[in-house]
Design a protein that fits this description.
Elements: H1 6-33, H2 39-66, H3 99-117, H4 127-150, H5 154-158, H6 166-184, H7 197-215, H8 224-252, H9 257-271, H10 282-303, H11 312-330, H12 350-380, H13 387-392, H14 394-399
């Protein structure tokens, strides 16, 4: 029996921990952007995913994603409740880390992906409906795309690549968020302002920190690809941050911290599918495209009065979509042997077209399924809170708590 690679195993445990901290970081990010009466209502949705998604993942999620033979939309139930996983089991993708480490690492992705969606419908959705949404969305959107892309399924067999989640995480969550906005409708008070930009800054800093585990960790071992993924992540995010600030400064006449923070997350989301597949010189171009493209998407959304309250579609949906397309442009097999056909920038079109078609299909499916699923949930449990509860704020009306002692403010 092969022994584990101690260095890679240690790195992957740290990476799993980094991805885990991204979900509380998202709670801080969204909590700061929410109004004072809805801070806890949005934060509990992220923290609830930490607990409930783990239950689903152990029960059947891991099996549906990573069991079964090649091809198909789902795995099978061979590893339900982690059947057959022992302390000696190695991850068969590289034989270097325990399977238990791989299970934990991928579980952290499953936890944060549906939590991303919640920013779109902040202070409008009942907690009961959210918990049903959380369960069904993972089962019918997240799990099949994990299997199809990372579990050897249909898209993987077709040659589609996604290093750390441009399709699997950001495009599906972002377009599901847009569908949620269309189904749930606009807030009663769309002019509500963030309650704490410093809290948003704390969340952003933790998200950026955790993203190194998200992207570099997706190599699933320590090698030169791990290093290039790490550096590509930071470079692209930094260029996106600068691009967003410059555009907003020109547009509004002032550099804004909230814009800087949003631009950095847009850059991180956009480089995610590319990180370990593209040369370093492309990272600044990806970052500039992310800062400009996601900024324009948010402005376009605002012009159409789509009430995606925390810009999940404009940042994550458009970022994941754009990053997947740019992977089709910049992928190079000299960087990573998993790339069998170079991207458009190197004179080949086949891989670019595959990536474009895959992300179009994933985005469309996530949008259509999410919209229909919310309609079905609404037949069982009301999805949207009443106007009275919304005006009162979900913290008190649904959860019986307040984020701040108002007497001390």
């Amino acid at each position: 029996m092969n022994s584990i690679d101690v260095g890679s195993t240690g790195f992957m445990l740290i990476s799993a921990s980094l991805v885990m901290i991204m979900t509380p970081a998202l709670a801080f990010f969204y909590g700061g952007l929410a109004t004072k009466r809805n801070i806890l209502g949005i934060m509990i949705q992220s923290f609830a995913s930490l607990g409930w998604t783990t239950v689903l993942w152990v029960a059947f999620g891991y099996s549906l994603c990573f069991s079964g033979g090649p091809g198909g939309f789902f795995g099978n139930l061979d590893k339900v409740f982690l059947h057959g996983v022992s302390i000696d089991s190695l991850y068969d993708g590289n034989g270097k880390i325990p399977e238990t480490v791989f299970i934990a690492y991928q579980m952290m992705f499953a936890i944060i992906t549906p939590a991303l969606i919640t920013g779109a419908f902040v202070n409008r959705v009942t907690f009961k409906a959210y918990m049903i949404f959380l369960t069904l969305w993972q089962l019918f959107v997240y799990y099949p795309f994990v299997h199809m892309v990372w579990g050897g399924g249909l898209l993987a067999q077709w040659g589609v690549l996604d290093f750390a989640g441009g399709i699997v995480v950001h495009a599906t969550a972002g377009f599901a968020a847009l569908a949620s906005v269309f189904y749930v409708g606009a807030r009663v008070d769309k002019n509500s302002t963030p309650n704490s930009i410093p809290l948003v800054a704390i969340g952003t800093g933790l998200l950026w920190f955790g993203w190194y585990g998200f992207n570099a960790g997706s190599e699933l071992q320590v090698d030169k690809i791990t290093a290039i993924a790490f550096l590509n992540t930071d470079v692209a995010a930094s260029f996106a941050t600068a691009t967003w600030v410059v555009i907003e400064w020109i547009h509004h006449g002032k550099p804004k911290l909230l814009g800087l923070l949003t631009g950095s997350v847009a850059g991180l989301a956009t480089v995610t599918p590319c990180a370990g597949y593209v040369p370093l010189w492309s990272a600044p171009l990806i970052g500039i495209a992310a800062g400009g493209g996601c900024y324009l998407a948010v402005q376009w959304k605002n012009a159409r009065s789509w009430d995606d309250a925390l810009d999940v579609w404009g940042v994550h949906g458009v970022g994941g979509f754009l990053g997947t397309v740019l992977l089709g442009v910049f992928a190079n097999k000299a960087i990573n042997p998993a790339v069998t056909v170079n991207g458009l920038a190197f004179g080949q079109t086949a891989f670019f077209l595959k990536e474009l078609m895959a992300v179009l299909a994933a985005s469309a499916y996530a949008f259509i399924f999410t919209y229909g699923m919310l309609g079905i949930i609404n037949l069982v449990v009301k999805v949207r809170v009443s106007t009275e509860l919304e005006k009162a704020g979900l913290d008190v009306s649904l959860h019986g708590e307040k984020a701040y002692d108002e007497g001390s403010l």
